[in-house]
Amino acid sequence: MNTSAYSGQLDFAEGLAREAGALMRKNFSLGMKKEWKSDMTPLTATDVAVNELVLRKVQGAYPADAIISEEGSAMKDAEYAWVCDPVDGTMPFSHGLPTFVFSLALTKRGESVAAVVYDPICDRMVRSEKGQGAFVNGQRMQVASDEKLGKMTMVETGGFSVMPSLQAVIAATGSRVLTFYSCVYAGMLVASGELVAAIYKHTSPWDAAAVKSMVEEAGGRVTSLSGKEQRYDREVDGFVASNGLIHDELLALVAPLR
To answer: pTM above 0.85?
Structure first.
């Protein structure tokens, strides 16, 4: 029997993730109807439906907690906040690309203490908790062992770059650079050891909170773009998520571009 500090919340979050994933699978198709928000990111009916599901379920199970979610929040002065991206990767989701996840992290006074991330297409359920490790479908996750940049794959997430030369700077080290438009999906691959790092340049906490938990519990490191610790229940200063071994080298590359 799992008696860790947040096992009850994680069991709840995993059930919620499966409900959300079922909606995402059902609605995933080519030719999907979408609207465009003011920041030129797409919005689909699935984003809204999953967000409403999260609000209803979390408020029912944990009424004292706050909820911070991309398509609608329930803010309050609370020790715990659930930080959710109902469809992390709406850009690929809405264009028929199967690289998106449901993301739900639990923060305690701003610290990301647990997370559930679900890839509904590959049926990959990630569960992480402070001090307990990160697991995908019950198998422990471990970051990559590369000790320097070059001949490895990393991801620059988001695409709407506020550091337009970042990809060129990283590519010059010999690293291959991908762009996913799904920050949490990229973080899942860093935690799995498939990618050595992911860099995110924007401020949304729902793009970062689960990555902090997953990657660090898999043995990596996650900081702000300036290398600092930060809260995940408010706007963030982007993130660098890595295997830890190349973290300082990445921060040095990012610093002059900010």
So the answer is: yes
